[in-house]
């Protein structure tokens, strides 16, 4: 399946059982909720997927299970966030064998690579595979910025097709579009800037709170693409207190608690992460509870004819 790099792509959480094994039953419940809402792809093993805690065998199971659940309806993307080029090359090869349709790639982790090291890393991986790649540009959290000049160098690799834009600089959407036109697809990677990014021309949204509120997330995207901006803004204003749970070091705990509250997940995280407790847990539950009380009705967004 060809990846279009547009629409809403949930960065799904990994579901765990109390005994710290994969909870594939609840994982299926959530993926099916995403599909029913009309998402345009599934991204596995990102920050929300607690990728750094997953074994290679667990990644295999998650990819193959997701491919089975989606049954060709949407592409399956796996995040590559390895510590070495060798390990990344192995992970990419396995991802293709397991049935992934595309890759989301972080720069090398744990230390701040130079611009040259980062570009060579991405190009080396891209040349090793025919899977399409979305570069994850998140200098706030991962301390490495993929600049436009670096991205220009990567354009020698035809399968580097998209950028997950998480710089928090809304103008970067326009900068990328001005520099590369439609050669590079742009997906917003920050929930609290998603509507603004799409209004500035972003092609889609790699979303977090979609894990708990899939229909509302897809509705915003479809409304924007249909030119019904006023309706999209109304839902987005209701959504913002929830979306702000995504821009926190405890985003995994926050979003899993929201998933649990909407019945399509649990709040179980893998150590060293711990569930929220005390005042912070009460605060987050208050935000979720108030949002559920005021949850808006949605228009028949699946019926909209999207623009190109």
Features:
308 residues, alpha/beta, TIM Barrel, eight-stranded parallel β-sheet, globular
Overall form: globular
Spatial strand sequence of the major β-sheet: 1-8-7-6-5-4-3-2
Instruction: Give the count of structural domains.
Output: 1
Helix content, binned percent: 40-55%
Rounded mean pLDDT is 96
Would you count the extended β strands for me? 8
What is the H/E order? EHEHEHEHEHHEHEHEHHHH
Provide the gyration radius in Å.
18 Å
Structural class: alpha/beta
> What is the CA–CA distance across the termini?
19 Å
The percentage of residues in β strands lies in 5-15%
Q: Enumerate how many helices there are, as a single number.
A: 12
- Name given to the CATH architecture: Alpha-Beta Barrel
Main pleated sheet: 8 strands, parallel
What name goes with the CATH superfamily?
Aldolase class I
Determine the CATH topology.
TIM Barrel
Highest-level CATH class = Alpha Beta
GO molecular function: 4-hydroxy-tetrahydrodipicolinate synthase activity
Active site: 136 (proton donor/acceptor), 164 (schiff-base intermediate with substrate)
Organism: Maribacter polysiphoniae
Pfam family, one: DHDPS
What does it look like?
The chain is an alpha/beta fold and 308 residues long. The protein has one domain (7-303): TIM Barrel. It contains twelve helices and eight strands. The chain has helices spanning 24-37, 56-70, 85-98, 115-127, 139-142, 148-154, 171-180, 194-199, 214-225, 229-243, 251-262, 278-293, and strands spanning 7-10, 42-44, 76-80, 102-105, 133-137, 160-165, 185-188, 204-207. It has an eight-stranded parallel sheet. α1 (24-37) crosses α2 (56-70) and α11 packs across α12. The protein is globular, with a radius of gyration of 18 Å. The model has no long low-confidence stretch (mean pLDDT 96).
């Amino acid at each position: 399946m060809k990846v279009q790099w547009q629409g809403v792509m949930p960065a799904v959480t990994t579901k765990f059982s109390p005994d710290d094994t994969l909870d594939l039953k609840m994982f299926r419940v959530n993926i099916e909720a995403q599909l029913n809402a009309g998402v345009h792809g599934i991204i596995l093993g990102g920050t929300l997927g607690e990728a750094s805690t997953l074994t290679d065998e667990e990644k295999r199971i998650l990819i193959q299970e997701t491919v089975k659940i989606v049954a060709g309806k949407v592409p399956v993307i796996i995040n590559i966030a390895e510590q070495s080029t060798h390990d990344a090359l192995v992970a990419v090869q396995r991802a293709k064998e397991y049935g992934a349709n595309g890759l989301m790639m972080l720069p090398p982790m744990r230390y701040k690579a130079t611009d040259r090291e980062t570009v060579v890393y991405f190009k080396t991986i891209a040349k090793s595979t025919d899977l399409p790649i979305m570069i994850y540009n998140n200098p706030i959290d991962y301390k490495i910025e993929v600049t436009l000049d670096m991205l220009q160098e990567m354009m020698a690799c035809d399968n580097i097709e998209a950028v997950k834009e998480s710089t928090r600089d809304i103008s970067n959407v326009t900068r990328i579009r001005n520099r590369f036109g439609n050669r590079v697809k742009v997906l917003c990677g920050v929930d609290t800037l998603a509507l603004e990014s799409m209004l500035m021309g972003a092609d889609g949204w790699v979303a977090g709170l979609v894990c708990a509120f899939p229909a509302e997330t897809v509705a915003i995207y479809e409304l924007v693409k249909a030119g019904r901006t006023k309706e999209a803004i109304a839902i987005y204003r209701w959504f913002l207190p929830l979306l702000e749970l995504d821009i926190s070091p405890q985003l995994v705990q926050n979003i899993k608690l929201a998933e649990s509250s909407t019945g399509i997940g649990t709040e179980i995280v893998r150590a060293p992460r711990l569930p929220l407790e005390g005042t912070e847990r009460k605060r987050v539950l208050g935000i979720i509870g108030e949002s559920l009380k005021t949850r808006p009705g949605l228009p028949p967004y699946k019926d909209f004819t999207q623009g190109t």
